[in-house]
């Protein structure tokens, strides 16, 4: 049996840093703590990363790459309400995987100019995607709202998605890292985002959404 190639030290530093940032908050973790947990010298860590900000920026690059790779709508046809539902679940799974960005967002942005500029671009892109989804449904006669309402809905959907984990942390900080608790929280977050467009849905899309909602609410009721 062939032995697996040992993972590069740089990758292991990133994996451990992500776990520590997620579990304890990025402001509470230093490069010294990361080196100690890795059982390597600070000098070895600084060989791979200049400072903690360099680690954070590298993790953010990973985050962007995963977004671009995983979160894509089907090609050759317009996205439907089922696609949107799936897209939201994948988005929230990524947000959970890199949750320290969202939990410590305001603090990170005040200290990291590069992150500030890039995150602003991501928010603008998400608003653009949400707008295009609404306009696509409207063009098919499955959504009824004027341009001003579409703009407000797209912004509100992104606001809820961005700050949902912060809201959940305030609600239940002691269980924030429990997998079952957060799995339910992420499902609620998806629902809270997409339910905002429900009053404007028409036709088949409205029927599909109501079926998805009923299935979700029944699942939540069984688990509670």
TrEMBL record:
Residues 30-49 bind DNA. InterPro entries: Homeodomain-like_sf (IPR009057), HTH-type_Tx_Regulator (IPR050624), HTH_TetR (IPR001647), TetR (IPR025722). Pfam families: TetR (PF13972), TetR_N (PF00440). Keywords: DNA-binding. Residues 7-67 form the HTH tetR-type domain. The keyword Protein biosynthesis does not apply. This is TetR/AcrR family transcriptional regulator. It comes from Undibacterium seohonense.
